[in-house]
Write a structure and sequence with these properties.
- This protein is α+β, with helices and mostly antiparallel strands.
- It folds into two domains: 137 residues, START domain (Alpha-D-Glucose-1,6-Bisphosphate, Chain A, domain 4, 2-Layer Sandwich), CATH 3.30.530; 114 residues, 2,3-Dihydroxybiphenyl 1,2-Dioxygenase, domain 1, CATH 3.10.180.
- The strands form two sheets. The protein has an eight-stranded mixed sheet with strand order 9-10-11-8-12-15-14-13, with helices on one face. The chain has a seven-stranded antiparallel sheet with strand order 1-7-6-5-4-3-2.
- Strand 3 and strand 4 form a beta hairpin.
């Protein structure tokens, strides 16, 4: 299947265009959720920032004191209350965000376009369109009463595998009223990573995969953040834990190990902001 060369998303929010623009830019670190896979380097990231004006940068921050950060993009259009555009610095994508007055609020539209000679398999910036409805719209609805401190996840989270994760997610949201952090695909589509928040704990749903030869299928995998992943890995290995997957990086740094009865555990490097 050929990857999409563009993606578009739009939502209506109950604030005026100037406020919507300010919320999107100045409050990006408040509506962009701090989950295990929402940063390029989750082990180091302490937030996101959008600098003002043409030539300003979208940044993934690592150290405020030294200015250490990853440049995500350079702003090419800055029209407060009307339009924001940037050229991605991490993939071959242009992003346009339009703010259009509608009724008593604003229609916000995000369009992400792959450059003509861009790599269609490297489109991480498309996430700005995918996260518009579940994250930005939700933030606009609660920003008047919400804390201005970014919400951080707890150090213990849980991955649960289901044979039909989308069906399971719909049931969990309806029956247990768990808070879904993103939109769900149609039944039968690849769901990828489905994440609920129960307070500040993440409940993550993934497909049930084939079992490793020596055990049954992994149905529940605790996900634990630790201060020093390398030291933790060395200690687990010395204690006789079976290393299922060594330290690797996929947004977050992590490794997976099996305990004495074969249960799988994932340990990840905590961000500097996690308590």
């Amino acid at each position: 299947m050929t990857p999409d060369r563009s993606t578009t998303s739009e939502v209506e929010v109950a604030v005026d265009p100037t406020t919507a623009f300010e919320a999107f830019t100045d409050e990006m670190d408040l509506w962009w959720m701090r989950t295990p896979i929402t940063y390029y380097d989750s082990a180091r990231a302490i937030g996101r920032r959008c600098e003002h004006g043409v030539g300003g940068r979208l940044l993934e921050l690592y150290d405020e004191a030294t200015g250490d950060a990853l440049e995500l993009g350079r702003i090419t259009v800055w029209e407060p209350g009307a339009r924001l555009s940037w050229r991605s610095s991490v993939d071959d994508v242009d992003v346009d965000v339009l703010f259009e007055p509608v009724g008593a609020g604003t229609r916000v539209k995000v369009e992400c376009r792959l450059l003509p000679d861009g790599d269609p398999t490297n489109t991480g910036t498309y996430s700005f369109a995918r996260m518009l409805e579940p994250w930005f719209a939700t933030w606009c609805a609660r920003r008047d009463t919400a804390s201005r401190e970014p919400e951080e996840l707890n150090r213990f989270n849980l991955v649960v595998h289901y044979s039909k994760p989308v069906t399971a997610a719909r049931w969990l949201a309806r029956a247990f009223r768990f808070e879904l952090t993103g939109s769900l695909p149609d039944e039968g589509e690849d769901a990828g990573w489905i994440e609920f928040h129960v307070g500040r704990t993440a409940l993550i749903l993934l497909p049930l995969t084939d079992a490793p030869a020596e055990g049954g299928p992994a149905t529940h995998v605790p996900f634990v953040y630790v201060d020093d992943l390398d030291a933790h890995f060395a200690g687990a290995e010395a204690a006789g834990a079976t290393i299922v997957q060594g330290i690797h990086q996929h947004g977050y740094r992590a490794y997976e190990a099996a305990d004495l009865e074969g249960h799988h555990w994932t340990f990840a490097q905590a961000r500097p902001t996690m308590t």
